[in-house]
Amino acid sequence: MSSVDFLAQEKIWFDKPRYDEAERRFYERMNGSSQPTQDVGANTILQDIARARENIQKSLAGSSSSAADQGELVCRIKSLEVENQSLHKVVDDLRAALSKLECRVAVLEKSPAAVTAAPAPSVPYTNGTTVQQKTSAPVKEEEEEGDDDDDDIDLFGSDEDEEAEKLKEQRLKEYAEKKAKKPGVIAKSSILLDVKPWDDETDMVKLEECVRSVQADGLLWGTSKLVPVGYGIKKLQIACVVEDDKVGTDMLEEEIVKFEDYIQSVDVAAFNKI
Length: 274
Prior knowledge:
There is one protein chain. Helices cover 58% and strands 18% of the residues. The chain has seven helices and six strands; from the N terminus they run H-H-H-E-E-H-H-E-H-E-E-H-E. It has helices spanning 3-9, 16-31, 35-117, 139-149, 159-181, 204-212, 249-257; strands at residues 125-126, 129-130, 188-197, 219-230, 233-243, 263-273. A hairpin with a 2-residue loop joins strand 1 and strand 2. The longest helix is centred in the first third of the chain and has 83 residues, at 35-117. The chain is elongated. The relative contact order is 0.06.
Protein backbone atom coordinates (compact mmCIF):
# COMPACT_ATOMS: atom_id res chain seq x y z
CA MET A 1 0.00 0.00 0.00
CA SER A 2 1.42 3.38 -0.95
CA SER A 3 1.65 6.33 1.39
CA VAL A 4 -1.00 8.22 -0.57
CA ASP A 5 -3.49 5.43 -0.13
CA PHE A 6 -2.62 5.15 3.53
CA LEU A 7 -3.18 8.85 4.07
CA ALA A 8 -6.50 8.66 2.14
CA GLN A 9 -7.71 5.90 4.48
CA GLU A 10 -6.29 7.50 7.63
CA LYS A 11 -8.93 9.70 9.36
CA ILE A 12 -7.03 10.94 12.35
CA TRP A 13 -5.91 14.09 10.59
CA PHE A 14 -9.46 15.03 9.71
CA ASP A 15 -10.42 14.73 13.41
CA LYS A 16 -7.35 16.55 14.65
CA PRO A 17 -9.28 19.47 16.23
CA ARG A 18 -11.31 17.03 18.28
CA TYR A 19 -8.19 15.25 19.47
CA ASP A 20 -6.54 18.55 20.27
CA GLU A 21 -9.56 19.59 22.31
CA ALA A 22 -9.46 16.25 24.17
CA GLU A 23 -5.79 16.64 24.82
CA ARG A 24 -6.29 20.20 26.12
CA ARG A 25 -9.02 19.07 28.47
CA PHE A 26 -6.81 16.23 29.73
CA TYR A 27 -3.98 18.58 30.60
CA GLU A 28 -6.39 21.06 32.18
CA ARG A 29 -7.75 18.36 34.43
CA MET A 30 -4.27 17.35 35.32
CA ASN A 31 -3.34 20.93 36.20
CA GLY A 32 -6.53 21.38 38.23
CA SER A 33 -8.01 24.32 36.19
CA SER A 34 -11.74 25.29 36.54
CA GLN A 35 -13.66 23.34 33.98
CA PRO A 36 -17.11 24.93 34.60
CA THR A 37 -15.85 28.36 33.54
CA GLN A 38 -14.50 27.04 30.27
CA ASP A 39 -17.70 25.03 29.66
CA VAL A 40 -19.75 28.14 30.20
CA GLY A 41 -17.66 30.07 27.68
CA ALA A 42 -18.00 27.25 25.17
CA ASN A 43 -21.73 27.12 25.74
CA THR A 44 -22.09 30.83 25.16
CA ILE A 45 -20.14 30.57 21.92
CA LEU A 46 -22.33 27.69 20.80
CA GLN A 47 -25.44 29.65 21.70
CA ASP A 48 -24.20 32.63 19.71
CA ILE A 49 -23.52 30.35 16.74
CA ALA A 50 -27.02 28.84 17.03
CA ARG A 51 -28.57 32.31 17.20
CA ALA A 52 -26.62 33.40 14.18
CA ARG A 53 -27.86 30.38 12.26
CA GLU A 54 -31.45 31.11 13.30
CA ASN A 55 -31.09 34.72 12.22
CA ILE A 56 -29.68 33.62 8.88
CA GLN A 57 -32.57 31.18 8.36
CA LYS A 58 -35.10 33.83 9.35
CA SER A 59 -33.55 36.35 6.99
CA LEU A 60 -33.64 33.83 4.16
CA ALA A 61 -37.28 32.99 4.91
CA GLY A 62 -38.13 36.69 5.18
CA SER A 63 -36.50 37.42 1.85
CA SER A 64 -38.63 34.75 0.16
CA SER A 65 -41.84 35.99 1.83
CA SER A 66 -40.96 39.60 1.01
CA ALA A 67 -40.43 38.61 -2.62
CA ALA A 68 -43.91 37.03 -2.65
CA ASP A 69 -45.37 40.16 -1.02
CA GLN A 70 -43.66 42.34 -3.56
CA GLY A 71 -45.12 40.26 -6.40
CA GLU A 72 -48.62 40.60 -4.95
CA LEU A 73 -48.10 44.31 -4.46
CA VAL A 74 -47.01 44.71 -8.08
CA CYS A 75 -50.13 42.85 -9.27
CA ARG A 76 -52.38 45.07 -7.17
CA ILE A 77 -50.67 48.20 -8.46
CA LYS A 78 -51.16 47.06 -12.04
CA SER A 79 -54.86 46.31 -11.44
CA LEU A 80 -55.31 49.74 -9.84
CA GLU A 81 -53.66 51.39 -12.83
CA VAL A 82 -56.02 49.59 -15.23
CA GLU A 83 -59.02 50.57 -13.11
CA ASN A 84 -57.80 54.16 -12.97
CA GLN A 85 -57.52 54.29 -16.76
CA SER A 86 -61.08 52.94 -17.17
CA LEU A 87 -62.38 55.51 -14.69
CA HIS A 88 -60.61 58.28 -16.60
CA LYS A 89 -62.31 57.09 -19.79
CA VAL A 90 -65.73 57.07 -18.13
CA VAL A 91 -65.18 60.58 -16.78
CA ASP A 92 -64.18 61.82 -20.25
CA ASP A 93 -67.32 60.28 -21.78
CA LEU A 94 -69.48 61.92 -19.12
CA ARG A 95 -67.85 65.28 -19.76
CA ALA A 96 -68.49 64.97 -23.50
CA ALA A 97 -72.14 64.01 -22.92
CA LEU A 98 -72.56 66.91 -20.49
CA SER A 99 -71.11 69.38 -22.95
CA LYS A 100 -73.48 68.15 -25.68
CA LEU A 101 -76.41 68.47 -23.29
CA GLU A 102 -75.42 72.00 -22.39
CA CYS A 103 -75.26 72.92 -26.08
CA ARG A 104 -78.74 71.50 -26.70
CA VAL A 105 -80.16 73.33 -23.69
CA ALA A 106 -78.62 76.57 -24.90
CA VAL A 107 -80.17 76.09 -28.35
CA LEU A 108 -83.56 75.32 -26.83
CA GLU A 109 -83.37 78.39 -24.63
CA LYS A 110 -82.56 80.58 -27.61
CA SER A 111 -85.28 79.20 -29.91
CA PRO A 112 -88.35 80.52 -27.93
CA ALA A 113 -86.80 83.99 -27.88
CA ALA A 114 -86.42 83.91 -31.65
CA VAL A 115 -90.01 82.77 -32.06
CA THR A 116 -91.39 85.50 -29.80
CA ALA A 117 -89.21 88.12 -31.47
CA ALA A 118 -90.59 87.42 -34.93
CA PRO A 119 -94.17 86.07 -34.63
CA ALA A 120 -95.89 84.88 -37.77
CA PRO A 121 -98.62 87.20 -39.07
CA SER A 122 -102.09 85.95 -38.21
CA VAL A 123 -104.30 85.07 -41.15
CA PRO A 124 -108.08 85.32 -40.64
CA TYR A 125 -110.34 82.48 -41.83
CA THR A 126 -113.78 82.94 -43.32
CA ASN A 127 -115.85 79.85 -44.15
CA GLY A 128 -112.76 77.63 -44.35
CA THR A 129 -110.97 79.92 -46.86
CA THR A 130 -108.11 82.23 -46.06
CA VAL A 131 -108.45 85.93 -46.66
CA GLN A 132 -105.31 87.73 -47.68
CA GLN A 133 -104.46 90.28 -45.04
CA LYS A 134 -102.95 93.52 -46.07
CA THR A 135 -99.76 94.22 -44.23
CA SER A 136 -99.08 97.73 -43.21
CA ALA A 137 -95.99 99.33 -44.67
CA PRO A 138 -93.22 100.53 -42.39
CA VAL A 139 -93.57 103.94 -40.83
CA LYS A 140 -90.65 105.36 -42.74
CA GLU A 141 -92.07 104.27 -46.07
CA GLU A 142 -95.43 105.82 -45.20
CA GLU A 143 -93.76 109.10 -44.31
CA GLU A 144 -91.72 109.08 -47.54
CA GLU A 145 -94.68 108.15 -49.75
CA GLY A 146 -97.18 110.28 -47.85
CA ASP A 147 -96.45 113.40 -49.86
CA ASP A 148 -96.70 111.56 -53.18
CA ASP A 149 -100.02 109.90 -52.33
CA ASP A 150 -101.77 113.07 -51.20
CA ASP A 151 -102.64 113.92 -54.77
CA ASP A 152 -104.06 110.43 -55.51
CA ILE A 153 -106.61 110.28 -52.63
CA ASP A 154 -110.05 109.20 -53.80
CA LEU A 155 -112.61 110.90 -51.58
CA PHE A 156 -115.52 108.85 -52.98
CA GLY A 157 -113.91 105.39 -52.65
CA SER A 158 -112.48 103.13 -55.30
CA ASP A 159 -113.64 100.04 -57.17
CA GLU A 160 -111.34 97.83 -55.13
CA ASP A 161 -113.17 98.73 -51.90
CA GLU A 162 -116.53 97.89 -53.49
CA GLU A 163 -115.26 94.51 -54.71
CA ALA A 164 -113.87 93.73 -51.27
CA GLU A 165 -117.22 94.55 -49.65
CA LYS A 166 -119.10 92.38 -52.16
CA LEU A 167 -116.68 89.49 -51.57
CA LYS A 168 -117.10 89.86 -47.83
CA GLU A 169 -120.90 89.86 -48.04
CA GLN A 170 -120.88 86.85 -50.34
CA ARG A 171 -118.68 84.82 -48.01
CA LEU A 172 -120.75 85.76 -44.98
CA LYS A 173 -123.88 84.64 -46.83
CA GLU A 174 -122.28 81.32 -47.78
CA TYR A 175 -121.15 80.77 -44.18
CA ALA A 176 -124.67 81.44 -42.88
CA GLU A 177 -126.21 79.02 -45.40
CA LYS A 178 -123.72 76.31 -44.55
CA LYS A 179 -124.33 76.75 -40.84
CA ALA A 180 -128.09 76.54 -41.38
CA LYS A 181 -127.70 73.27 -43.34
CA LYS A 182 -125.50 71.71 -40.65
CA PRO A 183 -127.58 69.18 -38.68
CA GLY A 184 -128.02 69.87 -34.99
CA VAL A 185 -127.78 67.46 -32.11
CA ILE A 186 -130.67 64.97 -32.22
CA ALA A 187 -132.22 64.31 -28.83
CA LYS A 188 -132.94 60.63 -28.23
CA SER A 189 -134.41 58.60 -25.40
CA SER A 190 -134.30 54.98 -24.32
CA ILE A 191 -137.71 53.57 -23.25
CA LEU A 192 -138.48 50.27 -21.54
CA LEU A 193 -142.11 49.16 -21.98
CA ASP A 194 -144.11 46.57 -20.03
CA VAL A 195 -146.74 45.00 -22.30
CA LYS A 196 -149.28 42.88 -20.37
CA PRO A 197 -151.45 40.16 -21.94
CA TRP A 198 -155.03 39.23 -20.98
CA ASP A 199 -154.30 35.85 -19.43
CA ASP A 200 -151.88 32.93 -19.36
CA GLU A 201 -153.29 31.51 -22.61
CA THR A 202 -152.24 34.50 -24.71
CA ASP A 203 -149.68 33.70 -27.43
CA MET A 204 -146.69 35.79 -26.32
CA VAL A 205 -144.82 35.23 -29.59
CA LYS A 206 -147.73 36.72 -31.53
CA LEU A 207 -147.97 39.52 -28.98
CA GLU A 208 -144.33 40.46 -29.54
CA GLU A 209 -144.83 40.40 -33.29
CA CYS A 210 -147.72 42.82 -32.92
CA VAL A 211 -145.62 45.18 -30.79
CA ARG A 212 -142.71 45.13 -33.21
CA SER A 213 -145.07 45.74 -36.13
CA VAL A 214 -145.48 49.30 -34.87
CA GLN A 215 -143.09 51.31 -37.07
CA ALA A 216 -142.39 55.04 -37.22
CA ASP A 217 -139.70 57.47 -38.27
CA GLY A 218 -137.26 57.78 -35.37
CA LEU A 219 -138.30 54.49 -33.69
CA LEU A 220 -135.93 51.56 -33.22
CA TRP A 221 -136.91 48.40 -31.33
CA GLY A 222 -134.37 46.63 -29.16
CA THR A 223 -134.13 43.51 -27.00
CA SER A 224 -137.08 41.90 -25.21
CA LYS A 225 -137.77 39.27 -22.54
CA LEU A 226 -140.68 37.62 -20.74
CA VAL A 227 -141.07 38.45 -17.06
CA PRO A 228 -143.34 36.36 -14.79
CA VAL A 229 -146.20 38.31 -13.19
CA GLY A 230 -148.16 35.64 -11.33
CA TYR A 231 -150.60 32.76 -11.76
CA GLY A 232 -148.67 31.61 -14.83
CA ILE A 233 -149.03 34.98 -16.56
CA LYS A 234 -145.96 36.59 -18.12
CA LYS A 235 -145.53 40.13 -19.42
CA LEU A 236 -143.38 41.26 -22.33
CA GLN A 237 -140.64 43.70 -21.41
CA ILE A 238 -139.25 45.33 -24.57
CA ALA A 239 -136.78 48.21 -25.09
CA CYS A 240 -136.73 50.83 -27.83
CA VAL A 241 -134.87 54.01 -28.79
CA VAL A 242 -136.86 57.00 -30.06
CA GLU A 243 -136.11 60.48 -31.32
CA ASP A 244 -137.80 62.91 -28.97
CA ASP A 245 -138.94 65.28 -31.74
CA LYS A 246 -140.59 62.49 -33.77
CA VAL A 247 -141.86 59.80 -31.40
CA GLY A 248 -143.48 60.09 -27.96
CA THR A 249 -144.62 57.63 -25.32
CA ASP A 250 -148.27 58.50 -25.83
CA MET A 251 -148.09 57.62 -29.52
CA LEU A 252 -146.39 54.31 -28.73
CA GLU A 253 -149.02 53.36 -26.16
CA GLU A 254 -151.87 54.24 -28.51
CA GLU A 255 -150.45 52.23 -31.38
CA ILE A 256 -149.66 49.16 -29.25
CA VAL A 257 -153.03 49.07 -27.45
CA LYS A 258 -154.77 48.81 -30.83
CA PHE A 259 -154.00 45.07 -30.77
CA GLU A 260 -156.84 44.36 -28.34
CA ASP A 261 -156.93 40.60 -28.92
CA TYR A 262 -153.49 40.11 -27.34
CA ILE A 263 -152.65 43.23 -25.31
CA GLN A 264 -154.39 44.38 -22.17
CA SER A 265 -152.25 47.42 -21.26
CA VAL A 266 -148.90 49.13 -21.82
CA ASP A 267 -146.80 50.84 -19.12
CA VAL A 268 -143.51 52.76 -19.27
CA ALA A 269 -141.11 50.88 -16.96
CA ALA A 270 -138.05 53.13 -17.58
CA PHE A 271 -137.29 56.31 -19.50
CA ASN A 272 -133.74 57.61 -19.97
CA LYS A 273 -132.27 60.38 -22.10
CA ILE A 274 -129.37 59.41 -24.36
